[in-house]
């Protein structure tokens, strides 16, 4: 178990890392400084990777974006819609391979629902990041 730590973390940087869907980037949190930084997954500096591996207590790899959980979030959002026409459109779009882009395109015509979905998604990501920090005994002084 790690010692409990209060860290100054730039929340926007942490959220950007949790939203990262690019498998070519790896994000880390420096437990000493609170810095969130990324490197290419194929970064060829062996000394960097050796340092990260030897100091795994200091450098925590931030988990990549979880598309499976987002699909569940989208599905739950669609099921709670009261506008049957929109619900039907999103259900059809959601069943496609690139449902997220189409979802956002459709919701662009329904600003209130788009805003509601964004708030739900942001709350989900915030909660995921907060749980991850707590798992690593990190408690930012100002909770989001």
Helix/strand layout:
Elements: H1 11-19, E1 25-30, E2 36-40, H2 46-54, E3 59-61, H3 67-79, H4 84-94, H5 99-107, H6 111-135
Antiparallel strand pairs: 1-2, 1-3
Pfam family, one: UPF0158
Protein name: UPF0158 family protein
Structural class comes to mainly alpha
Distance between the termini: 24 Å
Order of helices and strands: HEEHEHHHH
Walk across the major sheet and give the strand order.
2-1-3
* β-sheet strand percentage: 5-15%
Low-confidence stretches: none
Q: What is the general shape?
A: elongated
Taken together, the total number of domains comes to: 2
Mean pLDDT: 87
* Oligomeric assembly: single chain
Query: Radius of gyration, Cα only, in angstroms?
Result: 18 Å
Strand count, sense and barrel status of the largest sheet are:
3 strands, antiparallel
* Secondary structure: helix percent: 40-55%
Describe this structure in words.
The protein is mainly alpha-helical and about 140 residues long. The chain has 2 domains: about 5-65, no CATH class; about 65-125, no CATH class. The chain contains 6 helices and 3 strands; from the N terminus they run H-E-E-H-E-H-H-H-H. Strands 2-1-3 form a 3-stranded antiparallel β-sheet, covered by helices on one side. The chain starts with 10 loop residues before the first helix and ends in a 9-residue tail after the last helix. The model has no long low-confidence stretch (mean pLDDT about 85). This is UPF0158 family protein. It comes from Geomonas paludis. InterPro entries: UPF0158.
